[in-house]
Write a structure and sequence with these properties.
Helices cover 59% and strands 8% of the residues. The chain is α+β, with helices and mostly antiparallel strands. It has a four-stranded mixed beta sheet with strand order 2-1-3-4, covered by helices on one side. Strand 1, helix 1 and strand 2 form a beta-alpha-beta unit.
Amino acid sequence: MANEVILLDFWPSMFGMRTRIALREKGVEFEYREEDLRNKSPLLLQMNPIHKKIPVLIHNGKPVNESIIQVQYIDEVWSHKNPILPSDPYQRAQARFWADFIDKKLYDAQRKVWATKGGEQEAGKKDFIEILKTLESELGDKPYFGGDDFGYVDIALIGFYTWFPAYEKFANFSIESEVPKLIAWVKKCLQRESVAKSLPDPEKVTEFVSELRKKFVPE
């Protein structure tokens, strides 16, 4: 059976980064197709008619939507190499809890850091730092969130790192001084080829966010 894998994505998306990392962790060859979100391709609209969002993973013509679901799917289909989710049911439930926490809490908080100003931005920054501290506390002294092995929660979180310099620039604070252990974890993750190949240059992300900010925060 043919094993055609296509990823419809947008380069600065911290969600798409998850899927790229998971595919590379498993050694899966895939075709990357960059989407113009202002002019979405017919394939994107056909494969994700509900949300019309990237990333979309297309495996042998069938779409899988939502990045965190894509990572689970990749782990199940290519189960022979580098397990992403823990085999223990309780540990697996915990990993899913923290990935859900990242999606529900971190995304909204980080958006307020770069897309607002004044009191709203300060409140967003405070929330953002508290969420990072909660995640740092969960990491503890472990090398990775799941213990000794790079896995599901690491993949869920690491893409946000590429936006950190933009948060710092537009909200005027230092993430490393707030959560040094989390930044040490970032540096460890970046040593993995799957991560290094999948994450864009944070400077380019900052330039992208700078243009985006002009639309959300008029001078």
